[in-house]
Amino acid sequence: MRSKMSRQKISKTTVARLICVGSLLLFLQACQRHQTLPNALENYSDRMYKVLELEQKSIPTTATLAFQDKSALATDVPELNIKMREFYAIEGCAIKQLIAERNTALGKIQLPSVRLGYEWTLIDLLRKCIDSNVNSENKALAVKMRDWLSQKQAIFPLIWSNMLTQSDEFYLGISSSGGFIDGNENDNFTDGLFDLKNLISIKEDPATNIASMEASLKSIQQHRIYARLWRSQLLLRDYLQQMTIDISTWASTFTCETRKDKEKLAIIRNVFTLFFIDEIQGIGAQMNQYHYALKPEFLKLIDDNHLPRNFTSTVEQYSQLGFDEYQNAMLAHIEMWQDIFKKCD
Question: pTM, whole model, 2 decimals?
Fold first, then answer.
């Protein structure tokens, strides 16, 4: 009996250890995803600084997106109160049950996306109820119902605003990620473009787009391409700006007058081609394509008056200004090398 219990104890211990090891491997795998760009930049800077005989340095960059806390991005939505006697006077409409469910304790605690879905269903049923004329004999109630519809339609964009800024999935997808752009199918760009278009289109055309809202939110939380794109811009900007400063200082005393100088520059050109042109510039070109495809959608958010200003200004900072800064850093770095290579032409 003791031997059997001992074997059981050992078996449980082994299983526990295997679970821990498995969890650790999954964690490490998750941490290593979407790290192509920082690895390429580190390889490029290490090789180039070594060839140029410059002091090796760890170029500091946080690449952290500074979005405000989610609660600071919430929009106040006025409540529409329906008197119980008016509510019970409604006849022959599914809206009655829907309103009753919303007034329960559970119904009052809704996720932002669930709330938006509820509001659209309410608007749709209310409109159908009015069109059916089933309550037309009660003229006061008919007027009330049209007033409710008008009020609900007016606040729908505000609830849509909260669906974007208060949903964990979208907030994380746009503000937080440990990864960067890989420049290949692993970026899930096609999904990212569809998801963003779908959530934005809900405001103007809920009948067509709201059914896939939850799927888009879940997808965004998984791929987080918007946050990864913006972090990649920050990372490239910081790396290239610092490298341009350091290499320009080295180039100020490089004349390429001797055979040794020309041989050294040939090696430098090879490092530049292998590590910058073939790797980093390729990822940068893909980032540019992502930016221009997503730009019309982000401009819709930036120009939307129903979204809070502290949200739209941050989106503008990263999607527009951040892109310009990254492109300027990339251009300055390339122009620097063009001037250096001309010295030996």
Answer: 0.86
